[in-house]
Structure formats: structure tokens, C-alpha cells
Known about the structure:
Blueprint: H1 27-36, E1 39-46, E2 55-62, H2 63-66, H3 75-80, H4 84-94, H5 100-103, H6 112-124, E3 129-132, E4 135-137, H7 140-154
Antiparallel strand pairs: 1-2, 3-4
Protein name: Helix-turn-helix domain-containing protein
InterPro entries: ArsR-like_HTH (IPR011991), WH-like_DNA-bd_sf (IPR036388), WH_DNA-bd_sf (IPR036390)
Organism: Brevibacterium permense
Amino acid sequence: MPSGFPESSVQSAAGNTALPGDTETFWALHGLVDHLGDGVTYAGYTTPPGGSGPVAWQMGLSSAGLAQIDFAEAAGSLAALGHPVRLQLLQAIYEGTSTVAELGKDDRFGTSGQIYHHVHALAGAGWLESARRGHWRVPAQRVVPLLTLVLIGTH
């Protein structure tokens, strides 16, 4: 785990809290508990390398809200990310490459037909949108969720 990114997984015992007492290190976790009680949240504020300005996003649900989710509903969105080439395409587009012609210059992505196949699968799942004819971008509301999933997958 890189420095600056503490990790804690504490199981609560009957009647004991699992919330770490270190409010300096676990400021986000304490904010979650203060705001939602128990639940899960993710948030971010970043300026994508290929973007024109910062993007801010947060999502949080209490445990009661989470209990209402059918996990299977996430399958389509997550499946679209389940291919290494699609993740590489998303990274390239996130970093500022926006057209299939530009993406086609990189041998990792295959033929233009293969690139279009992947781009359309990602767009169908909401991970890409057409910025203008022939140009693709990661929608602002998907930047932080995408980066969160990449962080989860790499840490």
C-alpha cells in the first residue's frame, strides 16, 4: 500500500466499535459515520489529464440503502470493464486521446474495427460518451467511479 493511503479492516466484537480512533488518518471514514451512520461512500476531486477542468463526485449509501441493492444490477457496467484492452482504451481516452484514428496508432488496441467494438461496449455501459462526432470522452460523472474501481483493482 503506498504511503498516504492507510488501510484498516477491523472486525467489531459484540458491543465494540470497529471505527479506528485516529481521526487524522481516518478523516473520510469518520465523516462517513458522522453523515450516514453506517454505510459506504466514495468521493473524489481530480482534474483528468485530458480534461478541461476539475471533476468532483461523491456517492454514499447507508447500510439500509445498500441492503436494497441487487448486486446483479452491476454486472453489465462491471463486465464492460472486464477486458484489459477496454481498460487501456479508457485510460488513453481519460488521458486525452479522443478519436478511434488516434487510438488506432497504438498497436495494443488492435484494428479500428476492434477499437470500435470496445468503444461501443464501453459507451453502452456508460463509461464513454461522444464528445462530438468521432470524439470520445469519459463522462464527468464517471471519472471518479472509474478511478475508484481502478484503485480497488490495483490496491
